[in-house]
User: Which sequence fits this backbone?
């Protein structure tokens, strides 16, 4: 059902709106678009429109429920999607590929994020947003039942999927792609602190799994999200046929040239802006580090100069003491020698 490349190019060249959008892209971006729409490459599920077309909790909650079950390691069922009214740092909403909040059948809440470019300070950021999520649930529980207490507040989960991981994860281990983080006590006491974090690095997973077969359902989901290689897609739907309808939904979308072009154009715009923002942030960080290093060097130079001045003063005092001792020796041996003359003779000798 997909376009042939020649047919697709003909449609673009003969539609003014399509052509004006297409020529704004780089050659690499044009080829990526053509490859996706002709099936030479698979759709990248990290694009928001493809993600929502394949794993949309509104009309296919069982798909998202299956993914969440494999992440959490327990069977869960998505009850409904909740409005995402978290207070985001300026521009942060536009930096997310997707951001979905769902309530499970047992009352637990999960916030699923997918980031094309991983944010700086992922730990601090995650802590702030899960605190916001927990407070929202507490207010909702109390709003529904004034007699409710803290025991009625269910655990909350933040699942963050990185297409390109932050440095914290790459520097930690280039093999570990799945991190489950929860509060632990140094004494072993068990307290239900309600919040749980999952961090998943698709880039690290994909690098590790190239030329390797998928061994379990969680790995299958991560391959679904991370790989656009046709051979991986074929292997995946042969081993796990339940992924075939998800790809079919996305490929049906790819037939609509105008819609996919608009989506692709928006994604590229956000990616370019995000990349530029990260580059500026990293350059500013390097400038700050250089400034800090320069200040440290200046302080070290000042400290060293102070030590040199102290040593020079100590040497001057020692020299004056030696001159006085030698002058006194001259005067003892020659009572007719004046003190000034003895000091002059001693200074001439020691200097």
Assistant:
């Amino acid at each position: 059902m997909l376009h042939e490349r020649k047919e697709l190019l003909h449609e673009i060249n003969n539609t003014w709106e399509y052509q004006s959008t297409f020529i704004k892209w780089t050659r690499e971006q044009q080829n990526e678009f053509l490859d996706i729409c002709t099936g030479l490459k698979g759709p990248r599920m990290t694009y928001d429109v493809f993600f929502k077309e394949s794993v949309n909790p509104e009309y296919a909650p069982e798909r998202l429920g299956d993914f969440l079950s494999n992440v959490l390691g327990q069977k869960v069922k998505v009850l409904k999607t909740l409005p995402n009214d978290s207070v985001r740092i300026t521009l942060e909403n536009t930096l997310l590929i997707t951001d979905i909040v769902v309530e499970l059948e047992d009352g637990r809440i999960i916030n699923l994020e997918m980031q094309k470019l991983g944010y700086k300070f992922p730990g601090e950021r995650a802590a702030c947003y899960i605190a916001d999520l927990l407070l929202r649930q507490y207010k909702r529980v109390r709003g529904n039942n004034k007699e409710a207490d803290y025991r009625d507040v269910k655990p909350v989960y933040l699942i963050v999927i990185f297409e390109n991981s932050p440095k914290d994860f790459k520097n930690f281990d280039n093999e570990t792609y799945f991190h489950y983080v929860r509060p632990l006590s140094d004494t072993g006491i068990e307290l239900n602190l309600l919040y749980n974090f999952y961090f998943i690095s698709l880039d690290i997973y994909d690098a590790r799994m190239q030329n390797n077969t998928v061994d379990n359902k969680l790995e299958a989901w991560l391959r679904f999200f991370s790989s656009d290689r046709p051979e991986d897609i074929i292997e995946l739907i042969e081993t796990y046929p339940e992924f075939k309808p998800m790809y079919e939904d996305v490929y049906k979308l790819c037939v609509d040239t105008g819609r996919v072009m608009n989506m692709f154009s928006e994604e590229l715009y956000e990616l370019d802006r995000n990349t530029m923002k990260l580059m500026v942030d990293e350059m500013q960080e390097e400038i700050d580090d250089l400034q800090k290093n320069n200040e440290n060097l200046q302080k070290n130079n000042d400290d060293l100069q102070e030590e040199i001045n102290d040593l020079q003063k100590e040497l001057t005092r020692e020299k004056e003491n030696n001159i006085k001792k030698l002058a006194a020796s001259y005067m003892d041996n020659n009572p007719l020698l004046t003190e000034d003359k003895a000091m002059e003779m001693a200074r001439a000798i020691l200097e």
About this structure: The two ends are 99 Å apart (CA to CA). The CA atoms of residues 95 and 274 lie 7 Å apart. The mean pLDDT is 84. Residues 257-333 form the longest helix (77 residues).
